[in-house]
UniProtKB/TrEMBL annotation:
SUPFAM superfamilies: GAF domain-like, PP2C-like, PYP-like sensor domain (PAS domain). Residues 43-104 form the ANTAR domain. Residues 508-560 form the PAC domain. PROSITE patterns: ANTAR, PAC. Transmembrane segments: none annotated. It comes from the Bacteria. This is SpoIIE family protein phosphatase. It comes from Streptomyces goshikiensis. InterPro entries: ANTAR, Bact_Sigma-Reg, PAS-assoc_C, PAS-like_dom_sf, PAS_fold_3, PPM-type-like_dom_sf, PPM-type_phosphatase-like_dom, WH-like_DNA-bd_sf. PANTHER family: STAGE II SPORULATION PROTEIN E, STAGE II SPORULATION PROTEIN E-RELATED.
Amino acid sequence: MTSDTYRPGDAPAPGIAAEYLPEAATPIPHQAPTPMGRLVATVERLRREVLQAHAAADGRALVELAKGILIGQLNCTPAAAARQLDVLCRDSGLSPLELAADIVNQAARDHVTEVAAEFVERTGAAEPAERPTAVAVRLRTAESGVLAAADDTQAVAESLLTNALEPLGAVAVAVWTAVPDGSLALAGHAGFPPREAARWRHVPPGVSTVARLALRERRLVTLDRLSGEGLPSIGHLLWPEGGRMAAPTGTGGRIHGVLEICWPQPLAPQPPQIERQIEALAELCARTMDTSPPHDPAVAEAVLPDVSELIDLAEGLQDPAVVLTPVLDPEGRLTDFRIRHASSRFVDPVGRPRGDVNGALLLEAYPMAAGESGLFDIIERVHATGEPFRAERMSLTALVDQIPLTSVADISVSRHGAAVLLLWRIEDETARLADILQHAQRLGRIGGFEENLATGEITWNAQLYALHGLPPTAPPVRLRELPGYAHPDDSAALGRFLRAVLRHRRPASVNLRLQRADGITRHIRVVAEPVLDAHERLHAVRGAYQDISAQHWTEVALAATRDQLAHTEAESAERNRLALQLQHAIMPPTPAAIEAPGMRIGVRYRPAETESLVGGDWYDTVVLPSGLILLSVGDVAGHGIEAATGMVVLRNALRGLAVTGAGPGQLLSWLNTVTHHLAKHVTATAVCGIFDPSTRVMRWARAGHLPPVLVRQGEAGAFPLIEGLLLGALPDVRYVEREVRLEPDDTLLMFTDGLVERRDSSVQDSLGHLVQAAAAGAGDLDARLDRLLAESRSDTDDDTCVIGIQVG
């Protein structure tokens, strides 16, 4: 059967594979010879014949197009062209449909041709999954179907799905139209149930969908899995795990809509040739959606769209306006915009007259529009999508003698047919300053006024009405009437203020309590100055009211706080003074050396440098009734009167307990009981020693305190550390005691941590430094103690007690 004798109902045209005819090759199961079975078989046969007829019609249109090309090239009759096509088919071994696609590709050399040629080049050296010629056949067949139904977008969608997309595994296709208000309308669909298509017939502006993403980015968008993107779209409940591809459809720089394709399964990464095929199909859709006459790039500048109505609209606007039309290159791509008209209110930033701007290209007249401001991109997007754009306080830059000058303006861009209307409003400096002033008055709660004394006219701003608690329709309060709205106690100050302004004609200010009609009292500062005429006569008074209520109550609160702080400081100073007196009364800083049997005892006490840090350090040396000598130092934690009184309690308790003749371990155990039960919330450290002058043996114990240091024959060392918990931590503690036999000329040092403690060193390091200083010392006991205090490395400003015992 030749290619020019196709009839509806015949078998598919040669070259159209059965896989391109969905369900056409599916065998019909045997039906029972019942009326319902016969009806089902008839409906199935008719449906199959309709699909075959559609495929045959699309293929026949492509063959007829090839025959027309041969008629033009060979200058022959239609019959001769048909015979020539048969001869070429026999010689080449191709089907009439494949040969027709090749002939159309050679003659057209359009985007569809580029896609097919690229596919052939990329797959020529490999074993492709489908024949390269099948790509061209499929695309040309789809093109024939689209052109045959150019006025029916629904038929276009069905043709695309049947002829081009089902072989790629797609199950549905949607063709969206971009409406100028920013919404999307479903112009055609295939593969979706009717109810699903009805639900998605209109997508309002601002709703994010797959098609909206492609429209906004103006490029092909591929989603491997729709559920992973969180974007709703038509059919997302039918194939939630399927892939999507969406390509904007446009011509001449304008985007008319979006072609969206659905796959039932996740979409693997597609090769470039498949993406080019999708873009070619989107271009086919754009041809059917573009209602403007075919564009001829050769006469792009000669045939311009009629924008007379848009020019009339621009002239009727109060703001400067420019009418722009697109400029396309020979391949139909947007390159620039031509300024078709600049309105009469147009002011060129460079100072050129309107005549020099009218008719110029946008990027030639304003090259900075393609720079950081992005104005050209904005105009291009509006022209492509039809969605208007508005922005406030946008920076616009123009070149003046190669110097960029920037101004701030409100911008509005909208598309009208094939043209674009650009409006801007340069920010007026006076209006901007007035807006800043009004903003500052509102933030500062300041209301301004002017009172014309000649005419009696009074002008208030809105903030002043708010301060008075009056509606904007109420009559303003005259300056002379102000005492009637103020607290009676402010009458005298108001009188002086009015006399200074109205009689003496000099600026003045006054603070008053404004009593409003709603019962609220506000603290107000009124500042006014006279306005004199040419004869130095008082003409008007201008001034301002400022609400200082917050400042007033803040000052009141600060004054009360200052009084409280002063009282607290006085109490604290008195407490420290009493603590210092108590401390000095019990332990004078430098008492006289004590002469005891077999030894000489020297004491040094250095109080804290800051009186507020009065501490609880103590020392005690006493000859007991038994002839033994009690030696002790201690430190109550904390500072202030509590530490000082705690120190007195523990020092006196230890002295009284020592009369019992108990050893130092037992004494510290009893002192811990006193600390825990009788001195609430007090903890302390201590070292206690009992020295027997007859044997020169000293028994000692410690409660969390640093051990004594022994200096013998020029060498110094600390006593071995023994166990001993600090006082007051637990109710019942036993303390270990040790014995040390002292030799003649030995020097024993007992001290508190104020002598060695440093913030940047460990206690052991500080104790090692003290041992070195004690070993290096020489001279009598008093000189040794004074040198230790002078060379002390302590930096904690704490009290310091040192007891030096020199054995005779």
